[in-house]
């Protein structure tokens, strides 16, 4: 997802519209595997502003991840936006740290926007991915999927640190 911006660099205020449709590989994020089940679609524009190139885009992605309760695959549609300013490397002081900047740096006449697309998608994933609001998950004792069948395990889980207190009230 590379933008050719040579036509923008010399003309302040000029814009360039773009559209990308690209397959993304699976990635590991936060201990889970995130797979893209269809091409990621990015529509947007790049504008030459006073300080650099301002990129605005709309992102649509289809993701497959495991349910946090029952571990079945779940399809998630992600629609988000991203706005990022890119500044040419020669206009950034050499001693300025990366963390101190509110923008990204590019060299030459090509801007790679794949990094902001990945970031926007990952930041817009739900904290907990569940297949259904009433998902019962798996049994912590035997591993049975409780959405499909009941198991004979006791549902009364006791914190092992409190095990001794359970008998205290019997006396």
Tell me the layout of helices and strands.
Layout: E1 2-4, H1 6-9, E2 15-22, E3 27-29, E4 32-36, E5 40-49, E6 52-66, E7 73-88, E8 104-106, E9 110-112, H2 114-123, H3 163-168
Parallel strand pairs: 7-8
Antiparallel strand pairs: 1-9, 2-5, 3-4, 4-6, 5-6, 6-7
Molecular structure report:
- It is elongated and about 85 Å long.
- Helix content is 12%, strand content 39%.
- It has two domains: 2-132, no CATH class; 136-171, no CATH class.
- The strands form two sheets. Strands 2, 3, 4, 5, 6, 7 and 8 form a seven-stranded mixed beta sheet that branches.
- The protein has helices at residues 6-9, 114-123, 163-168, and strands spanning 2-4, 15-22, 27-29, 32-36, 40-49, 52-66, 73-88, 104-106, 110-112.
- It has three helices and nine strands.
- With 171 residues, it is mainly beta.
- Strand 3 and strand 4 (32-36) form a beta hairpin.
The N- to C-terminal Cα distance equals 70 Å
Mean pLDDT: 84
Give a short account of the largest sheet: 7 strands, mixed
The low-confidence parts are none
What percentage of amino acids are in beta strands? 35-45%
How much is the radius of gyration in Å?
A: 24 Å
Tally of helical segments: 3
Q: Approximately how much helix is present in the residues?
A: 10-25%
Q: How many domains make up the 3D coordinates?
A: 2
The beta-strand count equals 9
Shape: elongated
**Protein structure class:** mainly beta
Order of helices and strands: EHEEEEEEEEHH
């Amino acid at each position: 997802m590379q933008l050719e911006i040579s036509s923008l660099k010399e003309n302040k205020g000029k814009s360039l519209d773009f559209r990308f449709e690209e397959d993304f590989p699976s990635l590991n994020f936060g201990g889970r595997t995130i797979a893209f089940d269809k091409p990621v679609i990015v529509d947007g524009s790049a504008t030459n502003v006073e300080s650099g190139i301002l990129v605005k885009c709309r992102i649509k992605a289809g993701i497959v991840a495991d349910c946090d309760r029952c571990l079945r695959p779940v399809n998630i549609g992600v629609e988000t936006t991203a706005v990022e300013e890119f500044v040419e490397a020669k206009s950034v002081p050499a001693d300025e740290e990366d963390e101190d900047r509110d923008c990204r740096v590019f060299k030459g006449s090509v801007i790679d926007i794949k990094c902001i697309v990945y970031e926007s998608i990952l930041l817009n994933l739900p904290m907990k991915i569940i297949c259904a609001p009433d998902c019962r998950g798996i049994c912590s004792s035997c591993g049975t999927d409780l959405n499909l069948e009941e198991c004979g395990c006791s549902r009364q889980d006791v914190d092992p640190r409190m095990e001794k207190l359970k008998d205290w009230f019997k006396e």
